[in-house]
Amino acid sequence: MFTSSKLLKTIACGAALTLVGALVPAGVAPVFDGAAWAQENERPKPRKTKKAYVMSLAFNRPMEKVREAFEAEDYATAKAELLKLKKKKGAKEFDLATLDQYLAMIAFEEEDTQGAIGYYREIASFTDIPEYMRDGAIYALAQLYYSVEQYEQSLQYLRRWFDLETTTPNAQHYVFRGQTLYTLERYQEAIPDILQAINMTKESGEPVKENWWQILMSAYYSLDDFQKVKEVLTVLALKFPKPTYWHQLAGIYGELGMEKEQMGLMELSYRQGYFEKETHYEVLSQLYLINGAPYRSAQLMKEGFEKGVVSEEDYKNFELLSIALTNAQELEDAIPELEKAADLADDGELYQRIGLLYLQVEDWENCVSSMDKAVELGIDDEEDALMILGNCQFSQYEFDEARKTFRRTVTAARANKNDQTMKNAQKWIKVIDQEQRRYNEIVAEGLMPAKRGN
């Protein structure tokens, strides 16, 4: 099969299509290594045949002009001469196959992939030509169809090539078929081919290519076989240490419910300086919280803010920091962080949580303002918010306001058929009446000011 280095580069460029990997938090993009396949098949070795093949004398001399024009890259002249020869009578299949090879190469130069496919299909249909010409045409068709994203046709020719008695597939060929199957989302079928390529390469003592592991990992991930994904990602992380692999491996440990191992990997990634994204800080901070290390969670988020990696525009980041500080019993520090989150989100639920924190530190005035805001914005459990609001109002001797709030709670609870909350609110109203009378008596005796505030 006559080829040129320039043609091979064209094949490689056309065939190097990117596959989108299944993983997230980071994605894998295995790529068809067209250049490697092209180089390996640059000049197929002639196989032993029962007859020698030579061009007919009527074609031999005109072909000299074609070769000269081709070498001079005068493809227009070469193509014109070849098309004339194709019309010539008395041509043998070998003559026509040789003409088609040149025409296919010219089609490549003219970026006419479909034209090249047509010529190779004709070569593949001949029966009285050297085996290496037929085999090369079949394999070229597999590559060409892949390059134009006609993957089913590519797979058909690949399987035909594999079934030939005259071919000996190597690791690259198995990867090609495996990736074609992967692209067709036939992941279960793709895996044996990729494994075969990996095993063949290991046996030869050569290093396995990184993107082969990527394809294998993506196939397992697409099948939700996370245990196998973990095994392959471990190889990738050790042999090709990159931040992406460490973080993906940590994510897979999370999928497998191995949160302590996940935290350990994320910590190792952090120590290696692999924390480059906001999600890295968020994930490890959450893992610290889950595993009972809220102080470390808070410190990590603070570091992320200081480095400018963690965004101050996303309320969830401040919310996470406030949760960590709350769990670390740093309530005074947690409140302003949660207020930042609530201001960004304008969310009633967050203001309710702020009110609860103020309740815990007995800051009744800010508790009231926060709960007022929560009720105003609307929350899922309004009755609960009203109970907290009434409690804070009562605690700073705002008896009339507290009474109104608890009556409102009774109405809401009755409408929602929440008998227990309704009873609790009614009890609070009685307590308010009693405490207000006692309070008025104390004030009348001059034992305390009419409203002592906090």
Briefly, what is this?
This protein is mostly helical.
Verbal overview:
The structure is a single chain. The longest helix has 26 residues. The protein is elongated. The N terminus is likely disordered. The protein is built from 23 helices and no strands. It is 72% helix and 0% strand. It is mostly helical and 454 residues long.
Weakly predicted, low-confidence segments: 1-46
* Order of SSEs: HHHHHHHHHHHHHHHHHHHHHHH
**Separate helix tally:** 23
User: Helical residue percent?
Assistant: over 70%
- Based on CA atoms alone, the radius of gyration comes out at 37 Å
Distance between the termini: 94 Å
> Total number of β-strand segments?
0
Strand content is: under 5%
Major sheet description = none
The average pLDDT value, as a whole number, equals 85
* Secondary-structure-derived class: mainly alpha
What is the molecular shape? elongated
